[in-house]
């Protein structure tokens, strides 16, 4: 199913600190409703994305992308958009169980995503 887009007002959320912010279309696996800024991991076998959990063993335990828009995939796999690179504020990210700035920084840096801590 192709991604659909709507127009709405923008309220700054401190997610994006510095760009550009290249994004790509992805499939979010069913059974999850995630906010903008969720740290995603890719399931190796299916190529679908889920909230990255440190204890997973399907490939998704490695943080890989940042979800660009809130997405409801509760009922079915859903097409959405995720950031592939850029600089993002740690306090605006949603980490899965077992992940934090400390565990996500290096794998995200390796794919071109930098997480920064707020100054104040």
Automatic annotation (TrEMBL):
<dbReference type="Pfam" id="PF02924">
    <property type="entry name" value="HDPD"/>
</dbReference>
<dbReference type="InterPro" id="IPR004195">
    <property type="entry name" value="Head_decoration_D"/>
</dbReference>
<protein>
    <recommendedName>
        <fullName>Head decoration protein</fullName>
    </recommendedName>
</protein>
């Amino acid at each position: 199913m192709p991604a659909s887009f709507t127009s709405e007002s923008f309220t700054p959320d401190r997610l994006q600190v510095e760009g550009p912010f290249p994004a790509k279309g992805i499939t979010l696996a069913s059974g999850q409703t995630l906010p903008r800024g969720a740290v995603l991991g890719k399931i190796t076998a299916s190529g679908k994305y889920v909230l990255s959990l440190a204890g997973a063993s399907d490939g998704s335990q490695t943080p890989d992308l940042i979800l660009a828009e809130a997405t409801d995939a509760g009922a079915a796999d859903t097409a959405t958009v995720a950031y592939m690179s850029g600089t993002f504020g740690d306090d605006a990210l949603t980490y899965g169980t077992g992940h934090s700035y400390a565990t996500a920084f290096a794998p995200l840096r390796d794919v071109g995503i930098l997480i920064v801590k707020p100054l104040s």
